[in-house]
Design goal:
Rossmann fold; 14% strand; 7-stranded parallel sheet; globular; alpha/beta
């Protein structure tokens, strides 16, 4: 099976290059450091024997931040790998001091076939490998086992959908998962699904995302926006929306009681979709303004504010009163609801939450969130009607918002501690 896997990678490698080049049309950074994806790294930089942690993109990088900071406090050298430019950019901003001090280095993880992976291990010689959440790269893991290098899956998350995919190649999946030194899972459900593919015990450590502290400056900035630009307006933030979700939200917004002058804030997950979002607003004749057009101490009197900046999500969340969680309305599994809960923001979830299944369940049980149902195939009109009903309720009932806010803060506090547990298990 591994031979077939390796042959497949050799065949698709040219297409991977084409894909990077095409993605570079919208995100130019995809065209940078391409040689690293094939295991070629700057020879002038010697960075051997580090603790290596792989955080594929923004979410994993943010989740790993408290953990990495603890390693840096101990004087450890950290090799931080990514797959996306956005994850790499965020890491460079968070750890700029450690990078300048040559205590942390960032590179792209090589593609998962023999010679790039071999070059990666020979160049850096990591003494410990840590893969975050869902990152299971068969050759990378098996190579580490052959070299007797400890390699862990930390903050592990395995949805039922992914578990079914692994079950189609059960023998191969068992070989891969049993090659981990140990798997540290977020929840009992994740642990149970992992346990189906390995005889080694799987430990539950909780979710590292609960230990992330949002940028204080951004939180303060959001408070300033609220006070300066839309005081006394109940603000609904549609956070990290995906393709097709804005139209659903706008249909629900048309049913919302406007007598209290609520404000809708739409923050797309991908900035290249801004023109599409603007076109949707124009087609419905809604007045809008861009966040980049905000002027100091200017009161805005529009229907919708568009979040057209990257890296300011904490500010958008803090400046809102209610959060509709993007990624949950169109079958893409949802985005991170822990951040709005940690700020005491009531959350509305769509039916698609498999990326945060346990977190969503717990938040709903505690009363920190509301759900539009669990049927991903629910009719669009039913979904929008239910969303409009919740929005009207939360806009008109401040006591309901306060109750959910208190529960959200408690929910976030009760689930902290995964960083400490993970460090203890690893002996760091």
């Amino acid at each position: 099976m591994m031979i077939i896997y390796q042959c497949a990678w050799h065949l698709i490698a040219p297409f991977a290059l084409i894909r990077l080049w095409l993605k570079g049309r919208k995100e130019p950074n995809y065209r940078q450091n391409i040689s690293e994806r094939f295991g070629f790294y700057p020879k002038v930089i010697a960075f051997q024997d580090p603790i290596w942690l792989h955080a594929v993109s923004v979410g994993e990088t943010r989740a790993a931040t408290p953990f990495i900071l603890k390693l840096l406090e101990q004087g450890q050298r950290v090799l931080l790998t990514h797959m996306t430019p956005t994850g790499r950019k965020l890491g460079s901003e968070i750890f700029q001091d450690a990078i300048a001090a040559k205590q942390l280095m960032q590179v792209y993880l090589p593609y998962d076939f023999c010679w790039p992976v071999g070059r990666f291990y020979r160049y850096f010689r990591p003494r410990l490998g840590l893969l975050m959440e869902t990152e299971v790269w068969p050759y990378l893991i098996l190579f580490a086992k052959q070299k007797n290098m400890p390699i862990y899956l930390i903050n592990g998350r395995l949805s039922e959908r992914s578990a079914r995919r692994f079950a189609h190649l059960e023998g191969f999946s068992r070989e891969v998962f049993q090659s981990f030194t140990e798997i540290l899972a977020q929840t009992p459900g994740d642990a149970k699904r992992y346990q189906a593919f390995t005889k080694k015990p799987v430990r539950i450590t909780g979710n590292l995302k609960f230990d992330v502290h949002l940028d204080r400056y951004l939180v303060q900035l959001g408070a300033v926006w609220k006070k300066s630009h839309w005081p006394n307006r109940v603000t609904i933030c549609a956070a990290s929306t995906r393709d097709g979700e804005e139209s659903l939200i706008l249909k629900a917004w048309q049913q919302v009681d406007k007598t209290q002058n609520p404000l809708l804030m739409i923050v797309p997950r991908h900035m290249h979709r801004l023109d599409e979002v603007v076109a949707s607003l124009q087609s419905q004749q809604l007045r809008y303004e861009l966040r980049t057009q905000l002027h100091r101490a200017k009161l805005i009197d529009v229907d919708v504010l568009i979040g057209d900046t990257m890296g300011e999500m904490a500010a958008y969340l803090e400046s809102s009163d209610v959060v509709v969680m993007g990624g949950t309305l169109q079958g893409t599994g949802g985005q991170n609801l822990i951040e709005p809960c940690s700020l005491g923001k009531p959350v509305i979830l769509g039916p698609s939450t498999y990326n945060f299944a346990q977190v969503s369940h717990d938040a709903l049980q505690l009363g920190a969130a509301l759900s539009l149902g669990l049927d991903p195939d629910v009719a669009e009109n039913i979904l929008t009607d239910q969303l409009a009903q919740y929005l009207n309720q939360l806009i008109s009932e401040p006591e309901k918002r306060l109750s959910m806010s208190i529960q959200g803060l408690q929910f976030s506090k009760d689930h902290q501690g995964a960083t400490r547990q993970t460090l203890e298990i690893l002996g760091l």
